[in-house]
Protein backbone atom coordinates (compact mmCIF):
# COMPACT_ATOMS: atom_id res chain seq x y z
CA UNK A 1 0.00 0.00 0.00
CA UNK A 2 1.26 3.49 -0.87
CA UNK A 3 2.06 5.54 2.22
CA UNK A 4 0.67 8.98 1.50
CA UNK A 5 2.29 12.26 2.43
CA UNK A 6 -0.34 12.82 5.11
CA UNK A 7 0.37 9.39 6.61
CA UNK A 8 4.08 10.19 6.69
CA UNK A 9 3.40 13.55 8.38
CA UNK A 10 1.10 11.84 10.88
CA UNK A 11 3.84 9.32 11.68
CA UNK A 12 6.30 12.16 12.30
CA UNK A 13 3.82 13.86 14.62
CA UNK A 14 3.24 10.62 16.54
CA UNK A 15 7.00 10.26 17.04
CA UNK A 16 6.88 13.70 18.66
CA UNK A 17 3.89 12.68 20.80
CA UNK A 18 1.54 15.11 19.03
CA UNK A 19 -1.99 14.51 17.74
CA UNK A 20 -2.55 15.58 14.12
CA UNK A 21 -4.73 18.67 13.68
CA UNK A 22 -4.03 20.11 17.11
CA UNK A 23 -2.56 23.55 17.70
CA UNK A 24 0.56 21.94 19.18
CA UNK A 25 0.97 19.82 16.05
CA UNK A 26 0.55 22.87 13.81
CA UNK A 27 3.05 24.85 15.90
CA UNK A 28 5.53 21.95 15.68
CA UNK A 29 5.15 21.79 11.89
CA UNK A 30 5.61 25.56 11.52
CA UNK A 31 8.72 25.43 13.73
CA UNK A 32 10.07 22.43 11.82
CA UNK A 33 9.73 24.18 8.45
CA UNK A 34 11.25 27.40 9.81
CA UNK A 35 14.26 25.49 11.12
CA UNK A 36 14.69 23.90 7.69
CA UNK A 37 14.54 27.23 5.83
CA UNK A 38 17.73 27.22 3.79
CA UNK A 39 18.46 30.01 1.34
CA UNK A 40 17.78 29.39 -2.34
CA UNK A 41 21.49 29.79 -3.07
CA UNK A 42 22.38 27.25 -0.37
CA UNK A 43 19.93 24.75 -1.86
CA UNK A 44 21.47 25.16 -5.29
CA UNK A 45 24.97 24.39 -3.96
CA UNK A 46 24.07 20.71 -3.65
CA UNK A 47 26.04 19.59 -6.72
CA UNK A 48 25.15 15.94 -6.17
CA UNK A 49 21.46 16.63 -6.82
CA UNK A 50 21.90 19.04 -9.75
CA UNK A 51 20.80 17.92 -13.20
CA UNK A 52 21.11 19.37 -16.70
CA UNK A 53 17.57 18.33 -17.62
CA UNK A 54 14.33 17.32 -16.00
CA UNK A 55 12.61 13.94 -15.93
CA UNK A 56 8.83 13.87 -16.17
CA UNK A 57 7.33 12.97 -12.80
CA UNK A 58 10.20 14.06 -10.57
CA UNK A 59 10.41 17.29 -8.54
CA UNK A 60 12.84 20.18 -9.15
CA UNK A 61 13.89 23.62 -7.99
CA UNK A 62 15.58 26.05 -10.41
CA UNK A 63 16.00 29.75 -11.04
CA UNK A 64 13.75 31.10 -13.79
CA UNK A 65 13.31 34.40 -15.65
CA UNK A 66 10.11 34.19 -17.76
CA UNK A 67 10.10 35.29 -21.38
CA UNK A 68 6.87 37.27 -20.94
CA UNK A 69 7.61 38.67 -17.48
CA UNK A 70 6.61 42.18 -18.58
CA UNK A 71 3.05 41.07 -19.28
CA UNK A 72 2.64 38.54 -16.45
CA UNK A 73 0.80 39.83 -13.36
CA UNK A 74 3.27 37.82 -11.18
CA UNK A 75 5.66 34.89 -11.46
CA UNK A 76 7.89 32.66 -9.37
CA UNK A 77 11.66 33.14 -9.84
CA UNK A 78 12.48 29.92 -7.91
CA UNK A 79 9.77 27.39 -8.81
CA UNK A 80 9.22 23.98 -7.21
CA UNK A 81 7.98 21.99 -10.20
CA UNK A 82 6.83 18.49 -11.08
CA UNK A 83 7.29 18.28 -14.88
CA UNK A 84 4.41 16.46 -16.61
CA UNK A 85 5.30 16.90 -20.30
CA UNK A 86 8.49 17.67 -22.21
CA UNK A 87 8.76 19.80 -25.32
CA UNK A 88 11.80 20.45 -27.50
CA UNK A 89 12.11 23.97 -26.03
CA UNK A 90 10.92 23.32 -22.46
CA UNK A 91 8.33 21.54 -20.39
CA UNK A 92 4.91 21.77 -18.79
CA UNK A 93 4.82 21.33 -15.04
CA UNK A 94 3.05 21.84 -11.74
CA UNK A 95 4.64 24.64 -9.68
CA UNK A 96 3.53 23.86 -6.13
CA UNK A 97 4.43 27.36 -4.94
CA UNK A 98 1.19 28.71 -6.38
CA UNK A 99 -0.66 27.01 -3.51
CA UNK A 100 -0.43 27.69 0.23
CA UNK A 101 1.49 24.94 2.12
CA UNK A 102 -1.65 23.12 3.35
CA UNK A 103 -3.01 22.93 -0.20
CA UNK A 104 0.38 21.72 -1.47
CA UNK A 105 0.26 18.85 1.00
CA UNK A 106 -3.31 18.06 0.01
CA UNK A 107 -2.41 18.07 -3.71
CA UNK A 108 0.68 15.89 -3.18
CA UNK A 109 -1.40 13.51 -1.11
CA UNK A 110 -3.91 13.16 -3.96
CA UNK A 111 -1.12 12.84 -6.52
CA UNK A 112 0.38 9.95 -4.53
CA UNK A 113 -2.23 7.74 -6.23
CA UNK A 114 -0.20 8.27 -9.42
CA UNK A 115 3.22 7.20 -8.06
CA UNK A 116 5.25 4.49 -9.78
CA UNK A 117 5.91 2.84 -6.38
CA UNK A 118 5.45 3.43 -2.67
CA UNK A 119 9.14 3.27 -1.75
CA UNK A 120 9.92 6.99 -2.13
CA UNK A 121 13.30 6.07 -3.58
CA UNK A 122 15.33 6.95 -6.70
CA UNK A 123 12.84 5.06 -8.91
CA UNK A 124 9.76 6.86 -7.56
CA UNK A 125 8.08 9.39 -9.81
CA UNK A 126 4.60 10.62 -10.66
CA UNK A 127 2.83 9.10 -13.69
CA UNK A 128 1.03 12.26 -14.73
CA UNK A 129 -0.09 13.92 -17.91
CA UNK A 130 -2.29 16.90 -18.66
CA UNK A 131 -5.13 14.61 -19.76
CA UNK A 132 -4.95 12.63 -16.48
CA UNK A 133 -5.11 15.86 -14.49
CA UNK A 134 -8.05 17.15 -16.53
CA UNK A 135 -10.03 13.93 -16.06
CA UNK A 136 -9.36 13.69 -12.30
CA UNK A 137 -12.34 15.41 -10.70
CA UNK A 138 -10.63 15.35 -7.29
CA UNK A 139 -7.65 17.45 -8.44
CA UNK A 140 -8.89 21.02 -9.00
CA UNK A 141 -5.79 22.31 -7.14
CA UNK A 142 -3.59 21.53 -10.13
CA UNK A 143 -5.03 24.32 -12.31
CA UNK A 144 -3.28 27.38 -10.78
CA UNK A 145 -0.05 25.35 -10.59
CA UNK A 146 0.13 24.42 -14.28
CA UNK A 147 2.90 26.44 -15.95
CA UNK A 148 5.00 26.23 -19.13
CA UNK A 149 8.78 26.69 -18.76
CA UNK A 150 11.24 27.47 -21.56
CA UNK A 151 14.81 26.13 -21.34
CA UNK A 152 16.23 29.42 -22.67
CA UNK A 153 14.87 31.18 -19.58
CA UNK A 154 16.11 28.71 -16.99
CA UNK A 155 19.00 30.44 -15.18
CA UNK A 156 20.50 27.48 -13.31
CA UNK A 157 20.82 23.75 -13.36
CA UNK A 158 17.86 21.76 -12.03
CA UNK A 159 18.04 20.74 -8.38
CA UNK A 160 16.31 17.37 -8.18
CA UNK A 161 14.45 16.82 -4.92
CA UNK A 162 14.75 13.18 -3.79
CA UNK A 163 11.34 11.50 -3.42
CA UNK A 164 11.84 10.96 0.31
CA UNK A 165 12.12 14.76 0.70
CA UNK A 166 9.11 15.84 -1.37
CA UNK A 167 7.00 16.40 1.73
CA UNK A 168 9.62 18.67 3.30
CA UNK A 169 10.29 20.52 0.03
CA UNK A 170 6.61 21.32 -0.48
CA UNK A 171 6.46 22.96 2.96
CA UNK A 172 9.61 25.06 2.70
CA UNK A 173 9.00 28.77 2.00
CA UNK A 174 11.40 28.94 -0.95
CA UNK A 175 9.06 30.69 -3.41
CA UNK A 176 10.32 33.96 -4.86
CA UNK A 177 7.38 35.75 -6.43
CA UNK A 178 7.94 38.89 -8.48
CA UNK A 179 5.43 41.74 -8.84
CA UNK A 180 3.07 40.41 -6.11
CA UNK A 181 3.53 38.95 -2.66
CA UNK A 182 3.41 35.23 -1.93
CA UNK A 183 0.24 35.76 0.13
CA UNK A 184 -1.49 37.57 -2.73
CA UNK A 185 -0.56 34.87 -5.29
CA UNK A 186 -1.57 31.96 -3.09
CA UNK A 187 -4.86 33.61 -2.04
CA UNK A 188 -5.69 34.33 -5.71
CA UNK A 189 -4.87 30.72 -6.63
CA UNK A 190 -7.13 29.30 -3.93
CA UNK A 191 -9.96 31.61 -4.98
CA UNK A 192 -9.66 30.38 -8.57
CA UNK A 193 -10.19 26.74 -7.60
Question: Secondary-structure blueprint of this entry?
Answer:
Elements lengths: L4 H11 L7 H13 L4 H5 L5 E2 L7 E3 L13 E2 L3 E8 L2 E6 L5 H11 L18 H6 L10 E5 L7 E4 L4 H6 L5 E2 L3 H11 L1
Antiparallel strand pairs: 1-7, 2-4, 2-7, 3-8, 4-5, 5-6
Walk me through what this model shows.
This protein is 33% helix and 17% strand. It has 193 residues and is α+β, with helices and mostly antiparallel strands. The protein has one domain (5-192). The chain is globular, with a radius of gyration of 16 Å. The strands form two sheets. A six-stranded antiparallel sheet has the order 1-7-2-4-5-6. Strands 3-8 form a two-stranded antiparallel sheet. The model has no long low-confidence stretch (mean pLDDT 86). The chain has seven helices and eight strands.
Task: Please sum up the structure shown.
The chain is α+β, with helices and mostly antiparallel strands and 193 residues long. It has helices at residues 5-15, 23-35, 40-44, 101-111, 130-135, 166-171, 182-192; strands at 50-51, 59-61, 75-76, 80-87, 90-95, 146-150, 158-161, 177-178. The model has no long low-confidence stretch (mean pLDDT 86).
In total, the number of strands is 8
Helix content: 25-40%
Shape: globular
* Main β sheet profile: 6 strands, antiparallel
In DSSP terms, counting alpha (H) and pi (I) runs of 4 or more, how many helices? 7
Low-confidence stretches: none
Domains (count): 1
Q: What is Rg?
A: 16 Å
- Tell me the structural class: alpha+beta
Order the strands across the largest sheet as they lie in space: 1-7-2-4-5-6
* SSE pattern: HHHEEEEEHHEEHEH
**Distance between the first and last residues' Cα:** 30 Å
What share of the residues does DSSP label as strand, in percent? 15-25%
- Average residue pLDDT: 86
Amino acid sequence: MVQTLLQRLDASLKKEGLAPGTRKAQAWLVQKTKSLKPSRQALMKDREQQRNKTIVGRMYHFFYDPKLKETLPYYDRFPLVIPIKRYSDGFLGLNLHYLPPKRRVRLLNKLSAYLTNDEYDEKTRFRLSYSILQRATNLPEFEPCLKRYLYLHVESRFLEIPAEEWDIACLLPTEQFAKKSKDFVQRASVESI
